Amino acid sequence: MNIENTKAQMRKGVLEFCILSILKEKDAYTSEILDTLKNAKMLVVEGTVYPLLTRLKNDGLLSYRWEESTSGPPRKYYGLTDEGKEFLKELSITWTELSDAVNVITSQNSQS
Questions:
Q1: For 15-27, what is the mean pLDDT?
Q2: I want to staple 77 with a disulfide (CB 3.0 to 4.6 A). Which of 27, 90, 93, 112 is the partner?
Q3: Which residue in 42, 112, 28 sits closest to 75, CA to CA?
Q4: For residue 110, what pLDDT is reported?
Q5: Strand extents, DSSP E, 1-112
Q6: Locate the Transcription regulator PadR N-terminal domain: which residues (predicted)?
């Protein structure tokens, strides 16, 4: 079994939640989102994030706007829609429940 593949699948599973959480506070463009993920040690490549942002937009969870940049071409800023905010609330509840359950299970097993 390849541990790197399993770790990548775990990261992929929470990536959507992380991106929505990043956009909870303020709109951001893709480079900012990637930097935030990298600073948190969430190893992600651009080729994974762009399709995910498009899917979240198509699902009505994100909106975007173009903004002129002083250092290059215009930037596409993403933000949460009202539906995206509600979706994030639900994911947050689910994450807390899941995280608590995993912590209970893994701490029980480590005490055995």
A1: 96
A2: 27
A3: 28
A4: 63
A5: 28-29, 62-69, 72-80
A6: 19-90
Six-digit token string for 89 = 């609330």
Q: What distance lies between CA 23 and its chain's CA centroid?
A: 9
Two tokens, residue 25: 């506070």
Q: Which domains does the chain have, with CATH numbers?
A: 1-106 (1.10.10.10)
CA distances from 111 to 56, 98, 103, 104 (A): 41, 20, 12, 11
Q: Element (H or E) spanning 27, and its range?
A: none
In the numeric block, the tokens 């990043």 are attached to 22
Q: What is the pTM of this model?
A: 0.86
- The tens digit of pLDDT for each residue in 62-78 reads 999 999 988 899 999 99
